[in-house]
Amino acid sequence: MTTSSVQYAYESLKGTNRTSNKDGVGAFDLDIDGYSLFAIFDGVSSLANAKNGVNLALRELGRIFYENKHNNDIDLVKIVESLNAKIRESKYKKPYTTCAILAIPKDKTRPVKIASLGDSRIYGVDKQFIEQLTEDHHIDGHPSVLTRYLGMEQLEHSDIFYKEFISSFSDYMLCTDGFCSLFEKDKSLFHDIFLRHTPTGAKKEVNKLIQGKNQDDATYIYVRTNDV
């Protein structure tokens, strides 16, 4: 069995046009068999309770991860459905948020798994290029109008974007749309930074590029896998 370990770094920067940061980030990595789990959430900025939805989702995700930490498999679709149910049963009005979740196996012969709702994204990164792995859920021509999100009254199994694959990527990036909007303007520059640095080193350089320029909250996680 070929095993892997992960290095990662993350940042969440309040947007210059925002009074508070409604994004959220979660990283769950234990030195045991199974999967490492990474997630980002982007609370709908126009809704007062969006951050409450993000916090509910993060707590529920942590609970699920640690209660199942000794399992060798993980069901991301079921997890997203559980997060949605937790938000739906809360007392908050319209606590809507996007989500993007990445599960990386310790055993490299097993599939990487990704799931998302909304416009938060997951990218695969290798030495040649960066590839978007998720699909955005918004109305064509109106990117700010989401069609799917956590907190939906009727979330169907088919509403959740899901993919699993034996990966050829060494690195991954998860990000909210506030980061994506800057990243997509010069992907080659960001790509070069990621390849030349460790995740922690890249974080310092990336923050210089986006801090003060992000009108919306900008959150990202950069994950690197290493053979053990």
UniProtKB/TrEMBL annotation:
SMART domains listed in its UniProt record: PP2C_SIG (SM00331), PP2Cc (SM00332)
Residue ranges annotated for the PPM-type phosphatase domain, each copy included: 7-225
Database matches in Pfam families: PP2C_2
PROSITE patterns, per the entry: PPM_2
Top-rank taxon, per record: Bacteria
Regions annotated as coiled coil: none
Name of the molecule in the record: PPM-type phosphatase domain-containing protein
